């Protein structure tokens, strides 16, 4: 017997919502970034669930591309966070209110 | 058995997700996120995506989160992670978040209420999700996206080296 | 069903207990050998030939005072050594350490579990082992600990790349990511001969991954006191110690499986003894290198990994792929 796809989609939706709340409410850029990763992976879960539902390997390829894109995004994002907050006393995105570094 | 494991993994994922977004100390967030990825890996396994499950753990938990760990340890060294103040530039931030999530939840409930029940999928063939099946698809039908991901990674490498160079 | 689960649990227990015992005696053998290399007898007071030394060490560590420094993140501080040990023990689960045997009339493979992607599983679990070290170093609230932890994370993720690329040759030659099939692909010829480049790169990376001399930068005592485990005492320190030695055993066992034909050997000895002998040779080389080579400088270590090992491993993978595609049907 196989597990129903809908249950996995529900978990995926909940994870996505948790991640969205994190991005909207938190102000520590590192936590916000982690919440974004959470949302990426919620989407991955639903893609994998749909891939099994329809027996389509394209869903798996999609997840692979998402993982690669997320790895690139994390590398770039983290270096920006490091450069921006190297000389500030606390990491808080609200202190970023000027266009000059 | 599979049911029990699926429920446990899902609960682990959701709980760790909540820990991530509510963590005072980003380091705790990193640990919770790693646990979340391991739980997701288990769910992927149950969905017959074994290669992706391993990729999820190796790439996300093993490489991406180590990068996070590195930056958190460097940036937070010495800071006492103060309580986050209410936002001054975005008043009503929390209310806004609750509203957005409420709409989203309503959407999900609505979708679940009206959805036509997906027939339980047939048990996939044994090769589905295996490394050879995945590789064949990746290097034939989806060759162009694969090459483009390589380009994305190259762009990221150049970007990071450019940003991190000593001035 | 019940018997099958019983056998699985039994195998897991046997492997865990064996690894703990092997850890204890590995420390003794290492000290003995180091002693010989330095023209001194090594530990020889506790029991005949010092054979009870590991027991004495264990008792000592058990009764040491557990010190938790003021101001540390208690949860992370306590979890870090457990994570380290867990990663080390879990990686061994998929390694086949002998030919299948008959127990109660059923064929039992001599490995705890055999998933189809067992080689990738080892890498996945090994990549989680780094968390114990980094978190331990970070949570100690000690600058030496932090520096040791950060160094080790940079070192491990750098060398993991070359290590992964170096085994791709084996993967291509065997046509499978399952360790059992890789072993059975070596019935006639061990992969160490066609894959000699991959083997050398793998072994160098294995030394770096386990933080052993000459790549023991994370715990370089002259600069970092003891690196990530500076603030750890008693059993928590012992867990880090155990993780390091069990990791040594695991990478040696993996090297045996991938390159030295696993448990294959002439029939006059049982297969698991052949496996043990091959692993023991690797462990001896580990100690030999520690006694012989001075530690690398940190920038040299990174340059070596990225500028030499990674390109060599990449060329090896490409060369093997070309060979498999063109020569091999």
Question: Could you walk me through the main structural features you see in this protein, from its secondary elements to its overall organization?
Answer:
The complex is a heterotrimer of chains A (101), B (167) and C (329). Chain A is an all-alpha fold. Chain A has a single domain (5-95), classed as Helix Hairpins (Orthogonal Bundle), CATH 1.10.287.3510. Chain A has helices at residues 5-25, 29-54, 58-85. The mean pLDDT of chain A is 82. Chain B has two domains: 1-78, Four Helix Bundle (Hemerythrin (Met), subunit A); 127-167. In chain B, α2 packs antiparallel against α3 (50-76). The model of chain B has no long low-confidence stretch (mean pLDDT 80). Chain C is an all-alpha fold and 329 residues long. Chain C has one domain (2-326). Chain C has helices at 2-37, 53-63, 74-91, 118-139, 143-174, 179-184, 196-209, 221-224, 234-259, 271-292, 298-326; strands at residues 101-103, 106-108. The longest helix of chain C is centred in the first third of the chain and has 36 residues, at 2-37. The radius of gyration of chain C is 20 Å and the shape is globular. Classes of the chains: A mainly alpha (101), B mainly alpha (167), C mainly alpha (329). Chain B binds chain C through residues 25, 27-28, 31, 34, 38, 41, 50-51, 54, 57-58, 61-63, 66, 69-70, 73-74, 77, 130-131, and chain C through 73, 75-76, 79, 115-117, 120-121, 123-124, 127-128, 130-131, 134-135, 138-139, 146, 149-150, 153-154, 156-157, 160, 177.
Give a brief outline of the structure.
With 101 residues, chain A is mainly alpha-helical. Chain A has 3 helices and no strands. The model of chain A has no long low-confidence stretch (mean pLDDT 82).
